[in-house]
Amino acid sequence: MMSNFWQMFKYGVVRMHDLVEDVLNWETFYLSGRLQKPVQVLVDNLDIGNLNSINLKGAISAALLLLPAKFTEEHLYAKICSLSYMGDLRMLFAEDRNKVKKIVQVQFNLFQTMYKPLLEEYGAKGLLRFSSSDGQQAIVSQDCGLSVARSLVSSLPSKVRSQMGMKLGEKTKLSESGRVLREVVVGSREEAAECMRGVLRRKVMVSSARQAVSGLVAVGGVNAIRYLANKMEKAWKSWT
């Protein structure tokens, strides 16, 4: 017996070089942003899963810069999830304002599976402390001192650090191997967080505008209007 079940999927085509560049350096922060959320990898010829661990560590560092001294696991995952929506033009009129919260709540266990091992690494370095709660998630505490903020900034992808350095300034130092390293000048945690937020917001704004235009062209006029109308209806209901 043939099943009448069907499901619609959105898909895209990308060069593997562009995928790797975005995962490692947050070049556009489009693909890397998607891979900071739970996804199902069907075929992995380049060991993207391993490369993506670098992307996930960057996402944790960015989220920690934006979070207070104490927060829940859910707040952490929501902040990570929200990174790729900051500056997204579609969030202004065509997205559910509770989208990030819903994504995390529905896939909380998957977020835990993705990030728990990396969070334990941060804990081993003394950057995070965990305490149990009544539910299935932990309460997380972090040191908000300047030295930790500098450490978090140094863990961000090179492209982001470079753009932050253009705003905040850079200094150079020699590594143990004799290489010249450039460091972002971090005068305060708040200043670094705001600068990083601006860098990511601009990246997301550009990539979201590009994707919106290319998506409308790809699906055609009638389908584009129908799709946009559905999105705007959901967005409107989330605000009422």
Write up this protein.
It is found in: Mitochondrion inner membrane. Keywords: Lipid biosynthesis, Lipid metabolism, Magnesium, Membrane, Mitochondrion, Mitochondrion inner membrane, Nucleotidyltransferase, Phospholipid biosynthesis, Phospholipid metabolism, Transferase. The chain is mostly helical and 240 residues long. The protein has one domain (16-239). The protein has helices at residues 16-25, 31-34, 48-66, 73-83, 99-106, 108-124, 146-154, 158-168, 189-219, 221-239, and strands spanning 70-72, 128-131, 139-142, 170-174, 180-184. It has a 3-stranded antiparallel sheet with strand order 1-3-2. Strands 4-5 form a two-stranded antiparallel ribbon. α3 (48-66) crosses α6 and α9 (189-219) crosses α10 (221-239).
The percent range for strand residues is 5-15%
Low-confidence stretches: 235-240
Strand order of the largest sheet: 1-3-2
- Helix % is 55-70%
Based on CA inertia axes, which overall geometry fits? globular
Query: Strand tally, please?
Result: 5
Helix segment tally: 10
SSE blueprint:
Elements: H1 16-25, H2 31-34, H3 48-66, E1 70-72, H4 73-83, H5 99-106, H6 108-124, E2 128-131, E3 139-142, H7 146-154, H8 158-168, E4 170-174, E5 180-184, H9 189-219, H10 221-239
Antiparallel strand pairs: 1-3, 2-3, 4-5
Helix pairs in contact: 1-3, 3-4, 3-6, 4-5, 8-9, 9-10
Characteristic key phrases:
mainly alpha; 240 residues; globular; 10 helices; 58% helix; single chain; three-stranded antiparallel β-sheet
What's a concise summary of this model?
This protein is mostly helical. 58% of the residues lie in helices and 9% in strands.
